[in-house]
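seq as requested:
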Amino acid sequence: GVKNILSKKDKLGEREISELKRIGFELKSESNHYKFIYSDNEKYTFIVSKTPSDLRGNKNKVQKIINVLSVY
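struct tokens:
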């Protein structure tokens, strides 16, 4: 689910944010990035850029989220 949601667009919109919340993420918006916290557990905190200029970095981050949560 995470891969499908985060790979749809370069930037996160309201739809993507609500889909992430639906699957168990809390989203905190900070100045240049978002913090995703999974299942109210700070151990599973992921930082994703807000800007499309770091698109490759975000794709790498999506893969890291998937890897970490598949172990969880």
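The chain has a mean pLDDT of 80.
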